[in-house]
Structures are given as structure tokens and as C-alpha cells.
Amino acid sequence: MLTSEHRPTARVLDILQLLSTSKDGFSLTEIAATIKVPKSTIVPIIRTLCDRQFITLSGNGGKYIIGINSFIVGSSCLHNIDVLSLIKSQMKKVVEATSEVCQLGILIDGDVLYLAKEDSSEPIRLISFVGKRLPAYSTALGKSLISEFTLEELHQIYKNGLQPVTKNTCTDFDQLIKECLIAKKRGYFSEKEEVSSGICCFAVPLMYAGKIIAALSISIPSFRLTKEKKELAIHALKTSKENLEGIFRDLNIDKDLFENSLLFKTK
């Protein structure tokens, strides 16, 4: 314990932090043993926390779990977190590392909805912009977002088929599925001039609890796409993916919270 800590308060926090790690809860004996405090010392703390509904007995063999008031306090914290700012800070790092444009998108009815964009100092013209929707199958960003769908699901989403955006757009369902399978194995998605002439893109999905909630991409003009630039771009995307998914886990930011949070205050 830090010398500046107030011991009784520290024990309260130790109990709450411990219970937050398990949905099954802990018995009084387990709590005392884990935080290394005598049971007689924590009994009044436990009683007070129960009375104030910060913890509760689960009925599962007398084990304590997090209570409703702890949930309310935690939820109020999430409402104050600007998720978009957290993500854009990582997008800035991608741009700094690659000198190329970085974009964030989510899936809406088979389309990519672009939520954020970080420009680079290098000139580039894109047809995508914040608020723009494009067919997901025509972009690297979109392919990463639909990569978990089955062939049957894709046919349901795109009932009129895969309409070309450019002459390079993938318009074959089987080919799209094949591309997605390969991309998932290598850890990134790509497209070459499928939505914008002269532009290549790379993207990674952002996951929470095994589900895709968004995606990040880098757009690079074909004339600047060297082997070194491609490797740099993919490394930057994968690094930001790892960092952001860690943040999502720490803050318990799932797909519903993500889509209904401050992300829709697009800038």
C-alpha cells in the first residue's frame, strides 16, 4: 500500500476491484484471503457496502458480487469518456508514422459510414469524407467490417448484387468471401482502386469480445505505394488496433455503447 493511502478506504476499493473481476463473486473468506485482511476487519465494510447496494449477495453459495450502485457509478464514468477523442489520438499516430490519411468507419446497412478522418501533410483526393457512405464491399475498411458474414448473409445484405464503383470493384460474391478469408489470416484487408482511381487502401477491424465494432484504414496513392510504405502502413494499423482494443476492454466499450456514444458527434 502506498504511504499516502488511507487504509480503510484502500480496503473498500480493494474489495470493489476484486469483485469486479468475477461475475460469480467471492465469499467472505475468499475476499479476506485475496486482499490479505482479517475477516473480522472487513465484515463491517462488507455490511456497509451491502447496505448501500455497492455489493450484494448473489445467492450462489453466499458469494458477493458487484451491486447496482457500483454499476451506476461506473456507467456515469463512461458517459464522460469521449471515445472519438481516444480513437483519433491513435489515428494521429498512424498519420505521423506513415504520412498518409487515416479513416474510421462503421457498418450501416451494408455501407461504410465514415466517422472520422485524420489528414496528412501529403496531398491526396478521396471520394470518402466524414458522414459519407460507400458500399462496404468496395473498400478495405468495409471488407474488414463484413468479413464475419457468411455467403448467405452477404446475399441478403446486397440483394441487387455487388454493383461496381470503379472497374476494379469486386462484384463476385465468391471472390469477396475468398478475399476476406485470406485477409483475416494475414491480419489486414486491402483494396486497389476499387472505390477511387489511383488510391490503394489497407484496413484492420477493431474488435470487442470477439465482435467487430469499427475499422481503421490508411489510404495511399498508388504512385507512393512502395513495399516499405505498405509494411509501414500495416504495422501502424496493427499497432493502433492493439492499443484501441486494449482501451475497449479496459473501458468495457462494446458495439452498442460505441455506436451510441460520442462517436456520433463526428467532426
Descriptive report:
- The longest helix has 25 residues, at 227-251.
- This protein has helices spanning 7-19, 28-35, 39-51, 68-79, 83-98, 140-145, 151-157, 173-186, 227-251, 255-259, and strands at residues 55-57, 64-66, 101-108, 111-118, 133-135, 189-192, 199-208, 211-221.
- With 267 residues, it is α+β, with helices and mostly antiparallel strands.
- Helices cover 45% and strands 19% of the residues.
- It has a six-stranded antiparallel β-sheet with strand order 5-4-3-8-7-6. It has a two-stranded antiparallel sheet with strand order 1-2.
- It holds the Pfam family IclR_C.
- This is Transcriptional regulator, IclR family.
- InterPro entries: GAF-like_dom_sf, HTH_MetabolicPath_Reg, Tscrpt_reg_IclR_C, Tscrpt_reg_IclR_N, WH-like_DNA-bd_sf, WH_DNA-bd_sf.
Q: How would you describe this structure in keywords?
A:
transcription regulation; six-stranded antiparallel beta sheet; Tscrpt_reg_IclR_N; Arc Repressor Mutant, subunit A; 8 strands; 267 residues; WH-like_DNA-bd_sf; 19% strand; DNA-binding; alpha+beta; single chain; two-stranded antiparallel sheet; DNA-binding transcription factor activity; elongated; Beta-Lactamase; 2 domains
